[in-house]
Specification:
Oligomer: single chain
Order of helices and strands: HHHEHEEHEHEEE
Strand content: 15-25%
Radius of gyration: 15 Å
Amino acid sequence: MIDYIRFLLKSTNEHGVHSPFLFSLITKGLYSRNRLWNDKKRKDVFVERVLSYFQPKLIMSSSPKEKTYTFLANSNYVPWDSENCDKVDVFFIDENTQLNKKVLVSCLSKMKNDAFVLMDKRARLNSTKKLWEIIVDSDTVSLSVDFYFFGLAFVRKEQLKQHFLIRL
């Protein structure tokens, strides 16, 4: 609970964002007034909104339970394989992942421009927090956004390294 209060004190909304790329994602993707998501909490439809906004062609999941996610079942995805890191548009990570630092950093370094990591942090496990810190600190990631329950980390060679804390 204290972590969440600290997050709320440090975080901002779309008005505190000075990145046009991120501002567009927040206003058109996450704060969208789409009837499909009416009456649902933003954190419950976060993943679907992000995927709807970016329309990725290929998603890779590090979770051994990928079949349980409906958004993966309804999309073109591949299970975790380090050989796929350079092919995917989205790399999904959740609390079930078995990735270690070396493997994660290696995969991040192979990701193509405009690919991103989507991390489900709702479980708030220490292992998930450590993986998120590794992702944010990676030289490959230039834009990272912490939404408390989720994280997005983008490979954007044209952008300077920035980190944002955004309230949903």
